[in-house]
């Protein structure tokens, strides 16, 4: 019996000390999954950040800001196409996360890290804090991943 308890405690210790398999964060009723930034070309003035946000609660919440010491500022943008021209508009109203639903900051909406402090490369981690009206502040880590063909919107001319 003592051997089983010791083995169980050792396993818990190993799991606690090893890197998490999943890349997610939870606070109150908000579940954040896979915060990531695509690696940008050298000297890019902005980085695009993406993740999914699930509201597991009974009350709507709203992502109202994203903060990071890794960039001069972070803005939330929505991409729209008008008359065949794609434009990015700041999401001044934030992002509504309805109760019991999942929303994504993906190609259509994203976090824009303006004037990053350094060139972040694949494997780097970028700290940030997501600020919600009800759930409050949630510290997360955006992992820098390889840019995929066709993913993300062009950010040329932004952040200058």
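Sequence proposed for the structure above (160 residues):
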């Amino acid at each position: 019996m003592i051997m089983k308890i010791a083995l169980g405690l050792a396993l818990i210790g190993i799991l606690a000390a090893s890197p998490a398999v999943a890349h997610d964060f939870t606070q109150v009723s908000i579940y954040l999954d896979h915060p990531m930034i695509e690696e940008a070309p050298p000297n890019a003035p902005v980085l695009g950040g993406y993740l999914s946000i699930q509201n597991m609660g009974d009350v709507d919440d709203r992502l109202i800001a994203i903060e990071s010491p890794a960039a001069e500022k972070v803005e939330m943008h929505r991409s729209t196409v008008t008359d065949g021209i794609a434009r990015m508009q700041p999401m001044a109203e934030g992002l509504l996360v309805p109760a019991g639903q999942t929303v994504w900051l993906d190609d259509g909406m994203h976090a824009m890290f303006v004037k990053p402090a350094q060139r972040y490369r694949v494997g780097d981690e970028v700290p940030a804090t997501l600020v919600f009206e009800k759930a409050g502040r949630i510290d997360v880590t955006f992992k820098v991943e390889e840019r995929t063909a066709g993913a993300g919107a062009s950010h040329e001319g932004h952040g200058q």
